[in-house]
């Protein structure tokens, strides 16, 4: 049994920034399920949206965020995001993160849905630079202890003698190298486990994105919201290799145009902003064009961007496409939509608090309300910074007066034979295909019902294994993948309209009379 003031789960931007902030107040143990940089953060390209431009204002950023969110953003959360964001970006710079400059000023990029240039970036490797800077700062902080290859499995709860309600008092963790389950007790637990793109066949997300935080919080009785709003990024490189490589929206921001394979630009027919329309519109348009033509991809024509600018702004994209035998300077590159970002998650307030006392969430795992039904590009790194900071400021001063509790029953330790990874991998493939085919960019009542019918038996199988088999890293993930997939199906089945990222062909219009609300579910 390990005791620490705060346990943080996850070493992306949210977990690391939170750990640095809360370490001012107490001891921190940060568990991460693979090596420390493995995270979506490390792959982020475009940048961090924040108001720095002389022609920009918080009101404009708020307005753009609300428009993208299609009526479901929480205005108080958006206000906090936009007004506190620039200070958090400055703190990153003070910590040593090096963003691209233009002279004395930050270089600001443009992305879809933004009415001004406001994307702070480090060329096209923004996330890698942020992750590097934060990991460096964390390594120098003696109050933060990082454990790699430690996968959080379940949250521990106990009855709080003060309130007589249930309180989160720690995390059960699998040391994936030793194969051992270890309880960690804490006064507060922060879930910063990222998204769930791995629930889908095609995704821009790295392998760690299996929905663990949302699944754990749900099992612990926390409210989970808006899981139907999964963002599909319009431009992932086709074909995928080991994982799908993203072609940043910033490339369209600088002038690249989407074309059919016959060369015709098609986005004008779908939206006045054409290739820079909001992501949901672009992803659906590409999906429609691909279905109509039978082509497996559409093209992104970068010829309007001067070569020097491509070399300076998108060196990594140029290199990655080049390694695949493509020349983006001279020919269009093939792209397809892929699952990219989870707007829903563990429901939190603007201080990161979930509905279970003692349990907090930040970053992609959380549903703070800032994204509503659709996230504005580059608002997620900002969200992670702003709300991780606020959670630390909320938790820190409370640590001295918060008791360490013991869970009522010791967590069970199944000792049966471990399930074969190959069998679990096969189930995972089925889940990913069902989700892509039936719970993807365009949904319908019949397809959602079919998905549920095909996913339920897998859930029963996996739960049966969980009760008896010795836990492994693969079993932990498959259990969370199936749980998360079912949460997405459940939320999608409750939204009988089309709004933002949820498009239901049985109800192709917005229904503000009945559906202008979050979809909230509790175990
Ligand atoms: P992550 O960075 O994903 O970190 C999650 C951490 O939790 C990882 O360390 C993981 O190993 C760990 N973890 C997960 N489960 C467990 C468990 N059970 N136990 C222990 N540890 C666990 N957003 C922008 O704002 N701008 C961009 O330009 C941008 N570009 C993107 C490009 C790509 C290719 C992708 C995939 C995403 C992009 N996004 C962008 C989205 C953004 O990167 C993510 O939303 C953000 O980085 C999430 O940060 P996080 O800290 O919440 O999670
Ligand atoms: C991108 O660079 O297109 C990704 C930006 C984001 O997801 O916010």
TrEMBL record:
Species in which this protein is naturally found: uncultured Gemmatimonadota bacterium
Function: Catalyzes the oxidation of L-aspartate to iminoaspartate.
Subcellular locations according to the entry: Cytoplasm
GO molecular function: L-aspartate oxidase activity
Catalytic residues (UniProt): 279 (proton acceptor)
Co-factor requirement: FAD
Matching Gene3D superfamilies: FAD/NAD(P)-binding domain, Fumarate reductase/succinate dehydrogenase flavoprotein-like, C-terminal domain, Succinate dehydrogenase/fumarate reductase flavoprotein, catalytic domain
Keywords: FAD, Flavoprotein, Oxidoreductase, Pyridine nucleotide biosynthesis
TM region positions: none
Domain FAD-dependent oxidoreductase 2 FAD-binding: 5-381
Domain called Fumarate reductase/succinate dehydrogenase flavoprotein-like C-terminal: residue spans: 430-521
Pathway this chain belongs to: Cofactor biosynthesis; NAD(+) biosynthesis; iminoaspartate from L-aspartate (oxidase route): step 1/1
Coiled-coil regions listed: none
GO BP term, example: NAD+ biosynthetic process
Any one GO CC term of the record: cytoplasm
Enzyme Commission code: 1.4.3.16
UniProt family annotation: Belongs to the FAD-dependent oxidoreductase 2 family. NadB subfamily.
Keyword Flavoprotein: yes
Top-rank EC class of the record's enzyme: oxidoreductase
Name this protein carries in UniProt: L-aspartate oxidase
Superkingdom classification of source: Bacteria
């Amino acid at each position: 049994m390990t005791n620490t003031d705060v346990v943080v789960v996850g070493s992306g931007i949210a977990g690391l920034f939170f750990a640095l902030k809360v370490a001012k107040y107490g001891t921190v143990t940060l568990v991460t399920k693979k090596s420390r940089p493995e995270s979506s953060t490390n792959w982020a390209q475009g940048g961090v949206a924040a108001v720095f431009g002389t022609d920009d204002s918080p009101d404009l950023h708020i307005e753009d965020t609300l428009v993208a969110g299609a009526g479901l953003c929480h205005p108080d959360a958006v206000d906090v995001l936009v007004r506190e964001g620039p200070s958090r970006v400055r703190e990153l710079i003070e910590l040593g993160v090096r963003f691209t400059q233009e002279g004395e000023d930050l270089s600001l990029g443009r992305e879809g849905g933004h009415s001004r240039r406001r994307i702070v970036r480090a060329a096209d490797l923004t996330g890698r630079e942020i992750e590097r800077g934060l990991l460096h700062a964390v390594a120098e902080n003696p109050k933060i202890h990082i454990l790699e290859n430690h996968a959080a499995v379940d949250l521990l709860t106990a009855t709080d003698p003060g309130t007589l309600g249930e309180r989160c008092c720690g995390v059960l963790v699998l040391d994936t190298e030793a194969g051992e389950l270890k309880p960690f007790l804490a006064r507060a637990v922060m879930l910063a486990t990222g998204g769930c793109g791995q629930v889908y066949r095609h995704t821009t997300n790295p392998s760690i994105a299996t929905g663990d935080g949302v699944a754990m919080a749900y099992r612990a009785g926390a409210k989970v919201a808006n899981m139907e709003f999964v963002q599909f990024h319009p431009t992932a490189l086709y074909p995928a290799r080991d994982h799908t490589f993203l072609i940043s929206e910033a490339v369209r921001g600088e002038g690249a145009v989407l074309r059919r394979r016959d060369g015709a630009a098609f986005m004008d027919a779908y939206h006045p902003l054409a290739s820079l329309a909001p992501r949901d519109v672009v992803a659906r348009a590409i999906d429609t064009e691909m279905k109509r033509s039978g082509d497996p991809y559409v093209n992104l024509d970068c010829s309007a961007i001067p070569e020097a600018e491509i070399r300076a702004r998108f060196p990594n994209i140029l290199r990655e496409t080049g390694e695949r035998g493509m020349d983006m300077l001279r020919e269009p590159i093939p792209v397809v939509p892929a699952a990219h970002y989870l707007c829903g998650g563990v429901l939190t307030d603007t201080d990161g608090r979930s509905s279970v006392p003692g349990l907090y969430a930040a970053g992609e795992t959380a549903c703070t309300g800032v994204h509503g039904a659709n996230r504005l590009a580059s608002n997620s790194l900002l969200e992670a910074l702003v709300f991780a900071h606020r959670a630390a400021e909320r938790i820190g001063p409370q640590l001295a007066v918060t008791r360490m509790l013991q869970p009522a029953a010791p967590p069970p330790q199944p000792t049966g034979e471990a399930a074969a990874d190959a069998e679990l991998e096969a189930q995972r493939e089925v889940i990913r295909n069902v989700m892509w085919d039936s719970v993807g960019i365009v949904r319908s009542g019949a397809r959602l019902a079919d998905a549920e019918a095909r996913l339920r038996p897998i859930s029963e199988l996996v739960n049966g294994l969980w009760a008896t088999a010795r836990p492994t890293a693969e079993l932990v993930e498959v259990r969370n993948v199936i749980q998360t997939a079912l949460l997405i199906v459940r939320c999608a089945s409750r939204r009988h309209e089309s709004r933002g990222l949820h498009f239901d062909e049985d109800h192709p219009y917005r229904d503000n009379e009945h559906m202008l609300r979050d979809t909230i579910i509790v175990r």
